[in-house]
Amino acid sequence: MYGGFIDKFPMGAVVNRALKIKSGQTQVHRYMRPLLDRVEKGEIDPSFVITHRLRLKDAPDGYEMFVNKEDECLKVVLQP
User: Fold this and answer.
1) Which of 17, 25, 27, 79 lies at a C-alpha separation of 20 to 30 Å from 2?
2) Which sign does the torsion angle of CA 10, 12, 17, 22 carry?
3) Residue 2 to residues 5, 9, 14, 16: CA-CA distances in angstroms?
4) CA atoms of 60 and 80, how far apart (whole Å)
């Protein structure tokens, strides 16, 4: 029985249950235009994930907050 962790992820459980994990990045160019169109039409409201709005000059602080999961940060929107 394997019980190891990789970056706090329980790989032991994956191995012991013979699970398969697939990953990859989303096809941003394929989905961006259709999603933006739906946002513009009001069909999708993405505002629920926006937790912080900052000025562009504060981008480095927003990035640090996001990376370090500070102040319950999910998504930062930068405003010029």
Assistant:
1) 25
2) positive
3) 9, 13, 9, 6
4) 14
